[in-house]
Write a structure and sequence with these properties.
The complex is a heterodimer of chains A (305) and B (313). Chain A has 305 residues and is an alpha/beta fold. Chain A has 10 helices and 9 strands. Chain A has helices spanning 9-21, 92-95, 132-147, 164-172, 189-192, 201-210, 215-225, 227-230, 256-261, 275-289, and strands at 28-31, 40-49, 53-62, 68-73, 97-102, 153-162, 178-181, 238-243, 266-270. In chain A, helix 1 crosses helix 3. The N and C termini of chain A lie far apart (47 Å). The chains are: A alpha/beta (305), B alpha/beta (313). At the A-B interface, helix 6 and helix 10 of A face helix 3, helix 7 and helix 11 of B.
């Protein structure tokens, strides 16, 4: 069953953003010499988000005169916070400002709340106002808000790259000029979860099986987070939608309603079930969007021509 | 390096003369630690077909290790078991899919992972270089033992057939599959994907991506410690464990793997001691190492060796 978009979805998120705005970010910045190189400096950044809750992110600044294009990596669905995604050439940091944020519950942002994986997806899910992802979305917004204040960032070339949170963040706050999104958690979730036994969506199945009387409340909460509700508000110039492999739960065909709901141009890429082919496509797309001509030089060694 | 040359790569890894003595001493120390297993039903994750439990046991240094334990609701009195080992950054999964295939399954969270990090928590990045200048306190000394103790846990369970144990994982889980198959003769079949922790010192020359980049970062800041780092890593390199593997084993690698260079996969495979071994190199694949196609191969491999039946792909 697909829950219709709640009538008060705008109010729900406006109230969330208004609550976030009550708390200044109060950034604390610390140099991390171990991860700084000749081509990039790494900083640890602490920020306040909704709650109030203190977050942590890794900010990497290229050596040389900016401004530089930027990639914002919003919180992932895992406990570990990466500086850049595993397998990305470290030299990516020589050309882009990168900022990877830990949402509440992830490592470095796990005090006082330490999230469990699996477990986070259903934390507070039967009360929309208390759902943990309301806070995590606010965290992600706070991260992008902070990134675009950095003088090293070229505000015309800001990519937000991640799972559902990339699209949601780009919809809720200005600053993203390009979006790379891989829907995973919040696209027609209540309808699609029963069709899989794989985590993370299996968390929803576990929860509803254990608490069947809460199923309607779960569907209502998920409806506030559904990408279809955010898509019309994305103002980025263009979006790369990373779909699942043909025939999978979130393949290109399944995502067509989302494509139709997005305002700007959308490129749909269907996974070839190869981290090499999929990753290479995304790296090249981002480089082209950011006017980086010599993408070969910032690819992993085993991906170069 | 062009793909065609990856198989000709000559690893620089050399096995220390006292490698076996070092690990024998570690095992002796571990054998003095009581397992003290706890098996706690998890009704939230349990379904009609799979029973799920949270497991805890004690490992070397008295560290309490967590794991997920799944068993088919309908099973034989003695059921074959598979131990699933996690990637470097991943949160250990609940191995329900293995239970659905007819196995009892244990998914271990070695020290430092979520739920096993109360006593030891160097974090990520950092685990790879934690005490890297001293083999006696290097992070992976206890981490490896934590996975080997998973075999002890399985052997303690009355529903597990001790003669039909398998081990599998990819990336770090692939490396841990190698070390476990090497050190626990009870393992009857092993499937390792994109093995990490194999050819550390080769990898940091071949690729500049995390997690191996943690070592490069460390050596950039502490170049004077290179010799000590290389000395330590030789004791933990899967390539040095590989000649001890006697059980049937399959290894899959991606020829465009940007995390664990394929050269190290070939080097590892060349050193595997088992007579019954097979390498599956996947061109056009990165760190997935052809998982989408290879999962059927793994299913067939374990069905043959643990379930005693052939399954069609």
């Amino acid at each position: 069953m697909i829950e219709p978009t709640p009538a008060d979805i705008r109010a729900y998120w406006q109230e969330t953003l208004a609550a976030l705005a009550q708390y200044p970010a109060r950034p604390e910045i610390e140099l991390l010499p171990l991860r700084s190189t000749a081509f990039a400096t790494l900083l640890g950044v602490r920020l306040t988000s909704l709650g109030p809750y203190r977050l942590f992110g890794y900010l990497s600044i290229p050596t040389g005169a900016g401004p530089f294009p930027a990639i914002y990596y919003p919180p992932k669905y895992q406990s570990v916070l990466e500086i850049i995604p595993q397998g990305t050439a470290n030299l990516q940091r020589s050309r882009y400002v990168t900022f990877a944020l830990a949402g509440r519950g992830q490592r470095h942002a796990d005090s006082p709340y330490a999230a469990m994986f699996p477990g986070l997806l259903t934390e507070g899910i039967d009360h929309a106002a208390a759902y943990v992802f309301r806070g995590i979305v606010a965290d992600s917004v706070r991260g992008l808000e902070y990134l675009v204040t950095r003088p090293e960032v070229d505000s015309a070339r800001v990519v937000v790259a991640g799972n559902d949170l990339a699209l949601i963040t780009a919809a809720l706050t200005p600053g993203a000029t390009r979006v790379v999104t891989t829907p995973t958690l919040f696209y027609k979730t209540a309808a699609l979860a029963p069709k899989t036994q794989a985590y993370p969506l299996e968390e929803i199945n576990d929860y509803v099986r254990t608490y069947p009387e809460r199923a309607a409340a779960v569907r209502r909460t998920l409806a506030y987070c559904d990408l279809l509700g955010f898509a019309p508000r994305v103002t980025a110039a263009t979006t790369l939608l990373m779909a699942g492999a043909p025939g999978s739960l979130l393949d290109g065909g399944a995502l067509q309603p989302l494509v139709a709901a997005l305002r700007g141009p959308v490129t749909v890429y269907e996974s070839q079930q190869s981290l090499y082919k999929d990753g290479l496509y995304a790296e090249r797309w981002m480089a082209a969007q950011c006017d980086i001509a010599d993408v070969q030089s910032i690819l992993p060694e085993h991906w170069r021509d | 390096m062009p793909n065609a040359l990856a198989g000709n790569y000559q690893s620089t890894v050399r096995k220390p003369d006292d490698f076996d003595a070092f690990w024998d001493a570690v095992l002796r120390q571990a054998s003095g630690v009581a397992l003290e297993p706890e098996v706690i039903p998890d009704p939230l994750r349990t379904s009609e077909d799979v029973e799920v439990f949270q497991v805890f046991y004690t490992s070397i240094d008295q560290v309490r290790v967590a794991a997920w334990y799944c068993r088919p609701a309908r099973r034989a009195e003695r059921t074959p078991a598979i131990m699933v080992l996690p990637g470097y950054q991943m949160d250990p999964p609940i191995p329900k899919e293995w239970a659905r295939k007819g196995y009892v399954a244990l998914s271990v969270a070695p020290r430092g992972k979520l739920r096993s990090n109360r006593q030891f928590n160097p974090g990520y990045p950092n685990l790879l270089t934690h005490n890297i200048v001293d083999r006696h306190t290097y992070a992976y000394r206890g981490f490896y033992v934590d996975t080997w103790r998973g075999i002890d846990f399985l052997l303690s369970r009355p529903e597990v057939d001790p003669a039909r144990l398998g081990v599998t994982g990819s990336s770090q889980g692939g490396g841990l599959t190698i070390t476990t198959a090497a050190m626990r003769s009870e393992v009857r079949a092993a499937a390792a994907g994109a093995p990490y922790l194999c050819g550390f010192t080769d990898a940091i020359e071949l690729t500049h991506t995390y997690p191996y980049e943690e070592i490069t970062d460390y050596l950039r800041l502490h170049p004077e410690r290179r010799a000590a780092v290389e000395e330590t890593l030789a004791y933990f390199d899967g390539i040095c464990f590989a000649d001890r593997i006697a059980c049937p084993i399959i290894v899959n690698i991606g020829l465009q793997d940007n995390v664990c260079p394929p050269e190290t996969g070939y080097a590892l495979y060349g050193r595997v001691g088992a007579a019954d071994k097979r390498l599956y190199p996947y061109d056009g694949h990165g760190h997935d190492a052809g998982r989408a196609r290879h999962s059927a191969v793994v299913d067939q491999f374990f069905a043959r060796h643990l379930l005693g039946r052939e399954v069609s792909q």
